[in-house]
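ARCHIVE RECORD
Type: protein–small molecule complex
Small molecule: cytidine-5'-monophosphate
Source of inputs: curated submission
Record status: active
Notes field left blank by submitter.
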Amino acid sequence: MRTAAVVPAAGRGERLGPGTPKALREVGGVPMLVHAVRTLARARFVDVVVVAAPPGEVAAVAALLADHEVPAEVRIVAGGASRQESVLLAVASLPPDVTAVLVHDAARPLVPVELVDAVATAVREGAEAVVPALPVADTVKVVDPDAGFVVATPDRATLRAIQTPQGFRREVLEAAHAAAGAAVATDDAGLVEALGIKVSVVPGSEEAFKVTRPIDLMLAEALFARRYADGVR
Ligand code: C5P
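STRUCTURE (tokenized, with ligand):
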């Protein structure tokens, strides 16, 4: 089974503030995308990494990845207008012998390699789709955004925050994206669920958090400083 890691990295990252596309912003002195690609490339079963770059930055991303050592074959495609489209374009470019796909946000630069291995292993062992999940700390409510009222409070014990990498049999991921058409999901597993296919769960990692807001950048900097002090590169 050949496994590819697809990295959607084409977002502007507007919630982080204006400036460079989010994936190209530095944390721990290195662009987030480079951290993510290096970890994926170090994983036991990842044979090829495909990055969906911001459409105007394909050459810049190629230069960036060439400047930083990455221990695997890396390809770059132009991403799309949404995360979903970026993933679709990257998956469409995969070599035909790839039968398993991990999708990992460039904006999760601290993902531990052990989590990548756990997701890839679950797919190799027969899962059609697998997601890393963490219990939620806050109570989550469904609200009517227009009226500003609470509609429901789901039982917190049944809720999980879902991270990446998410792993898929290639055929399943392709079928899910093809069936989605214009329908939008915030993650790839959501499209698979819509087909009625079971999505497995593995324990997530607090370090696999997504850098979204300025406070996440501060946390990421602090964690990289600790890793570097511990001699981890
Ligand atoms: O915006 P959000 O934080 O949900 O983005 C998650 C990931 O999807 C990021 O790594 C971002 O670069 C990527 N993305 C993309 N193409 C888009 C929008 C987001 O590849 N058009």
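CURATOR ANNOTATION: The CA atoms of residues 23 and 33 lie 5 Å apart.
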